[in-house]
């Protein structure tokens, strides 16, 4: 049996989101699951997302700053950056 390594449980979402790369570029994504500390995203353009990006969705109360922890061809695992 595989041991769970996450510090916080993730909730399955399958909701649309938007990755903002800069003031001129946004990439659509699927927010696959999320926890209080991070998120897993699916995007056909995962390889073009920078190490730090903004994540927005209509149902999120605020835009979140994210830092990539791992990445595959179509998925990104990211943690939420600490608020200043």
TrEMBL record:
<protein>
    <recommendedName>
        <fullName>PilZ domain-containing protein</fullName>
    </recommendedName>
</protein>
């Amino acid at each position: 049996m595989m041991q769970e390594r996450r510090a916080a449980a993730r909730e399955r979402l399958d909701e649309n989101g938007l990755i903002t790369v800069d003031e001129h570029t946004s990439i659509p994504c699927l927010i696959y699951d999320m926890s209080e500390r991070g998120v897993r995203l699916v995007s056909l353009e995962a390889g073009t997302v920078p190490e730090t990006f903004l994540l927005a969705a209509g149902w999120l109360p605020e835009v979140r700053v994210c830092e990539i922890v791992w990445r595959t061809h179509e998925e990104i695992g990211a943690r939420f950056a600490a608020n200043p």
